[in-house]
Amino acid sequence: MNDTGPVRFSGSLERPVTREHALREALPGRSGRQLVFGVLLIALLVAAGWFIHFLALRDNIPATRHAWWPWIALAIAVVLSIGLIVAANGQPSRPMLALVCLFACGVSALELVTTAGLLDAGVTLTATGAVGMLLAVVAVLGDPRFAGSTGVLIGAFALSQVLVQAPQAGVATIEGVGMALAASLPAVLTAVAVTGFNRMVGVDLDHSIVQSTVGVGPTQPIAGAGDELASLDLEAEQLLAGVAAGRIPLPLPPAESALAARVGASLRIRLIEGRTDTWLKHAIAESELLAGAAVVDDPEGDAARLAPAARDALLLSLWLLVDDRPRGSQVPIRVIVDNADAETDRLVSIDLVIAGGSRRRIDPTTWETLGNVGSYRTFFEERDFRITILSRVEPDAPERTARSQRKAER
After folding, report:
1. Lower Cβ count inside 10 Å, N or C end of the chain?
2. Among residues 151, 181, 208, which one ends one of the domains?
C-alpha cells in the first residue's frame, strides 16, 4: 500500500501512529515545562511577599487565634500537592487537581476563621493570598476551570467576611476589600489567560493538522486518508501473517473469516468513497474543532478544484462560523459543494447552511474571510440561514472535469 506520509510504524505489526496523535503528544514539551516553572517561580515570590505581610501583622492577632495555623496548613497542603504532582509525572488527573483545590479551600477557610472580626485592628488575609498563587499553578498544570472556580469561591467568602465587618472596620474596609481581591484574582486571571492560550494553541494545532490537505490537487492522495487505510492494511497484514505462519488454519475459522470479510468490505467502500473524497472532507474529519460541527455534501468532488487561497479562506470561515453558532446548537453546519457553471466548469458553488443562525450573530471578520473565498449572498429559509458562495476554480485546473464529461456523454 502506498505510503501517504502521515502514518509511521515502529514495527511491522504495530498500530499506526497518526500525525494528529504525534503532534498532540509533542505539546507538553520543553516550552510547556518552562511555562510551569515560570509560573511556579512567580508564585513562590508572591507567596514570600504575603508571608512577610503576615509577619508584619502577627502582633495584631490575639494568641488565642493561633495565627500560625493557616500558614502551617498551607505548608502541609503544598507538600501534599507536590507529592501528588510528582506521583503523576507532572500530569495530574482531574481528581488530583480537585483534591489540591480542596486543600486550598481548607487553608482559606481556616484563615477566615482565624481573622474573623479583626479587620478593625488592621488584620487582613495573608495565607489566602499564597493560596491564590497555588491555584495559579494548578491552572497552568491542569484544567483551569478548577482553579478559576475555586478562586471565585474563595474570593466570594473573603469579600463576604469583609463586608460583614464593614460597620466596625470603617476605612479599613477598603484595605480588606483590596486584600481579598488580591488574594483571589491571580487564580481567576491565570485561569482566564490559560483558557485563552489553550484555545489559541488548539486552533493553531488544528490548522497545522489539516493544512496538509489544503494544497493537494484533485488527483493527489489526501494525507489524512492514509490513517484509515493503514489500519485496514495492518489488519490484513496480521491475518495474512497468521495464515503464512500456520497459526490460522485454512479454510478460515468463523472469526477470522468474518474479519477478512469486514476488511474486504471496508476496502471496497473506501475505494468507492475515494473517488469523490477531497481535501475538504478530510480536513473537517481531522479537525478537532470542525469534526461533528460541520458536514460536507460534495458528491462530485468539486471542492478539489478550489484554489489554495480559497481553500484556506473556506476553512477559516468554517472555524469562525462554528464559534458564531447559537449557544447550545447541536446541528452541524452543512457545507454543500456543487458545480456552478455547466458550460466551462470554472465556478464552484458552496452553500453554508446554519441551523438557527442569523446575520447579526456573525462577526464582521467572518464576512471579510468569506469574501476571500468568492462572492457570496445570504438567504433565510424557515429556521435556517444560508450563505451561498461562488468561487472560481484553480487557474491551472482542467476546464472540463469528469463530471462535465459525463454530462456531455449523456
Report:
1. C
2. 208
Residue span of the structural domain in which 66 resides: 24-208
- Write out pLDDT tens, residues 242-297: 777 778 787 778 888 888 888 777 766 665 555 556 778 877 877 777 888 888 88
Instruction: Give the count of domains, the chain.
Output: 2
Rg (CA), the chain: 30
Is residue 200 located within the same domain as residue 285? no
Q: Please tell me whether residues 199 and 67 are part of one structural domain.
A: yes
The C-alpha cell at 46 is 508572591
Q: Are residues 313 and 197 in the same domain?
A: no
pLDDT of residue 255: 84
**Residue 54 and residue 138 in one domain:** yes
- Closest Cα partner for 369 from 336, 329, 321, 307? 321
CA–CA separation, 110 and 198 (whole Å): 33
Convert the pLDDT of each residue in 384-399 to its tens digit. 888 999 988 866 554 5
Q: Summarize pLDDT for 16-48 with one digit per residue, the tens.
A: 344 444 444 444 444 456 677 788 888 889 889
Q: Is 268 inside any structural domain? A: no
Residue 226 lies in a domain: no
In a domain, 177, yes or no: yes
Say whether both 191 and 339 belong to one domain: no
Q: Domain boundary at 208, 230, 251, which?
A: 208
